[in-house]
Amino acid sequence: MQHNRNNPTVNAVVNWWVSLHADHGDRGARARLKRCESVFDALLEPETHRLIASVHAKATTGHALEQRLAVLAMALARVKPSERAAHLPPFADALGLTWDGSIPKGDDRPRLSPLRFSNLLKDGTDVDMFARALRRTLAILGDAPFDVPRFIGDVLFFKDQTRQKWTFDYYHTRRTDAAENTQPEKETQL
User: Fold this and answer.
1) Of 29, 71, 94, 140, whose CB has the highest number of CB atoms within 10 Å?
2) pTM beyond cutoff 0.90
3) Of 27, 13, 125, 6, nearest to 73 (Cα)?
4) Angle of CA points 154, 157, 158, to nearest 5°
């Protein structure tokens, strides 16, 4: 499932993220968001409330979504917009690639170890643990590009289906979009 790039919530977050990193963006706000240790710390930052307000202007949100927006504020402060926005890999796909950008073969190691990847997915239910795990993961990933709008949608609406999708992306066993959209055949009893 790819997130709709016409989703007003995702678009509002993307616009906030781009303005945060623009030449006229607030470097101090980015630095403070990078140092946040918890969702509450991020909620103490005016820039996080600017993000929440921009999303509120486009869509209605609840408490859980506002916490996810704070997680995104902390995470996206670390992610620089890429010059090549088209055809970027999904976030988990980028984590599972080697440092030269290829699919691991044999003894090749992915950018993020399977253990750290597993911990990231397990921490997804607690927003503070998830925020810390994302921060560590993004530090390891460095400047490796990935599909940020899709990442935003995944973090905002993180659930079991997202975890499963990320495992397929990480291990590069993702089915084609056409195969994903077909209904499985009914099992027949023998």
Assistant:
1) 71
2) no
3) 13
4) 70
Distances from the Cα of 76 to the Cαs of 47, 129, 161, 172, in angstroms?
12, 16, 22, 24
Asked whether 154 and 162 are in contact (CB, 8 A), the reply is: yes
Residue 5 CB partners (closer than 8 Å, separation 6+) = 11, 149
128 vs 124: CA distance, rounded Å: 9
pLDDT in tens, 179-190: 444 333 333 333
Q: Is 150 exposed, middle or buried (0-12, 13-18, 19+ CB in 10 A)?
A: buried
The domains of the chain, with CATH numbers, are: 8-175 (1.10.520.40)
| Length of the chain measured in residues | 190
Query: DSSP of 73-137, one letter per residue?
Result: HHHHTT-PPPS--TTPPPHHHHHHS-TTSS---TT---SS-HHHHHHHHHGGGSHHHHHHHHHHH
The beta-carbon contacts of 43-51 under 8 Å, at least 24 apart in sequence, are: 43/70, 45/73, 47/20, 47/73, 48/73, 50/16, 51/12, 51/13, 51/16
The DSSP secondary-structure symbol of 36 reads -
Residue pointed to by tokens 């984590």: 95
Could you give the 3-state DSSP secondary structure of residue 39? helix
